[in-house]
Write a structure and sequence with these properties.
8-stranded parallel sheet; globular; binds flavin mononucleotide
Length: 348
């Protein structure tokens, strides 16, 4: 049977207005990083282990102490209500139904209370504002609605430039699809261009929640996050939507994982499209793999049911991958499971 995941981009393209599809799909600049992400996972090769009992395979995991059915999780994205009328609510419903972690953007078009009421385990992704006072009510509201962690996105001092299309997505967007969790009048609050380690410490201390730093590619930055009090580091180049020609996350992950040496959890996103990508990510040190565009396309295709189908398919693929690789669990996969196929890229 054909993979559902393989059909999704074409299905979303068919269903969505051209400018919305383009907004979801495109990368920044020449689109080099956006185009390379998936292929970077595909360059990795496995060295499976044999003569092991794999009758039982467990891909469940814990992230910051909470239990989930698999390491696949839903990355934050803006304009989910442009993908489907139910937007973030449908994502939350799908996550709750499958035991999946949901990360909700501070740009969300659905009140945090509506997300929280689904019973999902969710984290807030925050674009901290230039005026820090405008960030506080948003985090307060998320925490009151049950957010269990704050994800600080650090790769977006400004939004990376994209090639213009025929029509701008912003002309097609209903204002109620964006930033509804900001108090009135503050929706124009600009992103902070001066984020520093002190912001990680501020979020952690003020709200007493774990802080995850999203958008880390360099080993030395990962260490700075740990020193600033981060509970986890999220390897991401924002789906290739910020600085173009950043390295692929599949290539950046091992260096970051080595740098934090198990002191904090490590997650990764960017081009993750199949169970084998998660298998490789786990061996290279990631505890979670997050889905951006595939989840948006599944949402566009069939709302919460589409997202559930995608997550179920990927989990089943991962179970098969872990079993064929000769291991009994996703947690604890060794680095030696993966080797690079060609001489390209840094040595693992
Ligand atoms: C349409 C779109 C909107 C996004 N909005 C946000 C956002 O609001 N906050 C954020 O931290 N990342 C955002 N991202 C980045 C994703 O969280 C994630 O890093 C990226 O999409 C992963 O790559 P993938 O799309 O190849 O899975 C967005 C990505 C897309 C495609």
């Amino acid at each position: 049977m054909a993979r559902y995941a393989d059909s999704l981009e074409a299905a979303a393209r068919e269903r969505l207005p051209e400018e919305v599809y383009r907004y979801f799909a495109q990368g920044a600049g020449d689109g080099v990083s956006a185009a390379e992400a998936e292929a970077a996972w595909g360059r990795l090769r496995f060295l499976p282990s044999v003569l092991n009992d794999v009758s039982i395979v467990d891909v469940s995991t814990t992230l910051l102490g909470a239990a989930f059915a698999s390491p696949f999780a839903l990355a934050p994205s803006t304009l989910q209500r442009a993908a489907h009328p139910d937007g973030e609510l449908a994502m939350a419903d799908a996550a709750a139904r499958t035991g999946t972690l949901l990360v909700v953007s501070s740009n969300a078009g659905t009140p945090f209370e509506v997300v929280g009421a689904t019973g999902v385990t969710w984290w807030l992704q925050m674009y901290v504002t230039a005026d820090r006072a405008l960030t506080s009510p948003v985090v307060d509201r998320a925490v009151a609605a049950g957010a269990r962690a704050v994800v600080l996105t650090v790769d977006t001092p400004v939004v990376g430039s994209k090639r213009p299309g025929q029509r701008s997505v912003w002309d097609a967007v209903d204002p109620s699809w964006l930033r509804v969790n900001f108090p009135d009048g503050e929706v124009g609050a600009g992103k902070a261009p001066d984020l520093g380690p002190q912001d990680v410490a501020w979020l952690a201390e003020r709200w007493q929640l774990p802080v995850v730093v999203k958008g880390v590619l360099r080993p030395d930055d990962a260490r700075r996050c740990v020193d600033a009090g981060a509970a986890a580091v999220w390897v991401s180049n924002h789906g290739g939507r910020q600085l173009d020609r950043t390295v692929a996350t599949a290539d950046a992950l091992p260096g970051v994982a080595d740098s934090v040496r198990g002191d904090v959890e490590v997650y990764v996103d960017g081009g993750v499209r199949r169970g084998s990508d998660a298998l490789a990510a786990g061996a290279l040190g990631a505890r979670a793999v997050l889905l951006g565009r595939p989840a948006l396309y599944a949402l566009a295709d069939d709302g919460a049911d589409g997202v559930v189908r995608l997550l179920d398919e990927l989990r089943v693929e991962l179970v098969e991958g872990v079993r064929l690789a000769g291991f009994g669990a996703f947690d604890g996969l060794p680095r030696s499971l993966v080797q690079r196929w060609s001489g390209a890229g840094p040595q693992l």
